[in-house]
Amino acid sequence: MANETTIALDLEGTLISNAVSQFPRSGLRGFLDFCAKRFDRVCIYTAVRDEVAVPIIKTMVDEENAPSWILQSELIQWDRTVKDLTNIPNSEIMDCLIVDDNPDYIVDSQVSQWIQIEKYSSPYPETDRELQRVQSVIEQRLT
Ligand SMILES: [Mg+2]
Predict the structure, then answer these.
(1) Which among 37, 78, 111, 136 is placed 20 to 30 Å from 142, CA to CA?
(2) Regarding the domain with residue range 6-142, which homologous superfamily does it belong to in the CATH classification?
(3) pTM
């Protein structure tokens, strides 16, 4: 049975629109609360440079779209080619889930750990409920 304890979250197209517009996805805060409750460790795994990602995350908190603990969450260091789960320190691949909209970033042999989310993109439909859907996929996986 799956029992992942770490979740790695993409930023652009997953939690927010992109690093420029930074629109928070519907249900963002609730989803992050769920992640904190269900996982021991919540990491941010983004192609956005750390110097850009940190202020974006701070804005999410300042605008109350994210809980303040996310300011302390780890930014995974990687070479910006693929989001290899072995880049997550002190963990095993099977302990980790990754939520990402972009299949190109997923390592072929790690597809079982990937929760695909539809890219949050223009025109940013108000009916978007992808974070809620992903939460339910994770809940089913972990029960
Ligand atoms: Mg993305």
Answers:
(1) 78
(2) HAD superfamily/HAD-like (3.40.50.1000)
(3) 0.97
Q: How many whole angstroms from 118 Cα to the centroid of ligand 1?
A: 9
Name the residue ranges covered by the structural domains of the chain.
6-142
Ligand 1 center to 18 CA (angstroms): 8
Summarised one tens digit per residue, pLDDT across range 98-135 is 999 999 999 999 999 999 999 999 999 999 999 999 99
Alpha carbon distance 102, 121 (integer Å): 12
- Which residue, 90, 9, 118, is CA-closest to 56? 9
Distance of CA 118 to the CA centre of its chain: 12
Other C-beta atoms closer than 10 Å to the C-beta of 42 total: 20
Q: Are 108 and 88 in contact (CB under 8 A)?
A: no
pLDDT of 24-68, one tens digit each? 999 999 999 999 999 999 999 999 999 999 999 999 999 999 999
